[in-house]
Amino acid sequence: MAFESLPARPLSHDEVMALSASGRFADVRPVNAFHYPERETQLITAIVFVTESGLRAVDYDPAAREWRVVREEPLDGPEDITDVPDALLGDVQAEIEQRVSELEDAGVVGATAARDDTTEVRDATSLGSVLYDQYTDDDA
User: Fold this and answer.
1) Where does the DUF7964 domain start and stop, copy by copy (predicted)?
2) Average pLDDT score over residue span 92-103
3) Cα distances (angstroms) measured from residue 88 to each of 8, 45, 65, 92, 111
4) Is 56 left (phi over 0), alpha (psi -120 to 50) or beta?
5) How far apart, in whole angstroms, are the C-alpha atoms of residue 42 and residue 79?
6) pLDDT tens digits, residue range 22-56?
7) Number of C-beta neighbours around residue 17 at 10 A
8) Residue closest to 124 by CA, chosen among 103, 98, 99, 93
9) What proportion of the chain, given as a percentage, has pLDDT over 90?
10) Residue 75: CA atoms inside 13 Å, Cβ hemisphere, count?
């Protein structure tokens, strides 16, 4: 299922942090990112949104140029991500990482280069170039 509230491109780390600071969500956490050392940029391709009513995990599909809902779960008034059951967060992370593992096996993305709290950071590869081109595309 498409998640049309986001632009048809990956988001920068700063954009995700702005969503987090907006007050519209109980919490916003990037889950997967591609790092571009030469551009000092991280593009986020998976995000967990926590609202007063539940959790919604989304990931970016560069082939379709859209964000997809990976998982939705109702929750009873969470204040932040610490109110989300660890088992649920683990399941969501596993679902997102399964897709990334398939891309790794195909040689499209590199292995995890670093971990920043809850975010898996990977060096940009051929997919990274596509993501960056889509991020900078003014038509998106």
Assistant:
1) 3-87
2) 80
3) 27, 19, 27, 6, 24
4) beta
5) 27
6) 999 999 999 888 777 667 778 898 999 999 999 99
7) 14
8) 103
9) 35
10) 24
Q: Which two tokens stand for residue 139?
A: 């038509």
Q: Give me the mean pLDDT over the 104-126 stretch.
A: 59
C-beta separation of 29 from 81 below 8 A: yes
**Whether this model's pTM surpasses 0.85:** no
Neighbours of 110 (CB within 10 A): 17
What is the reported pLDDT for 108? 57
- The 10 Å Cβ neighbour count of residue 28 is 21
Task: Enter the DSSP assignment of 25.
Answer: S
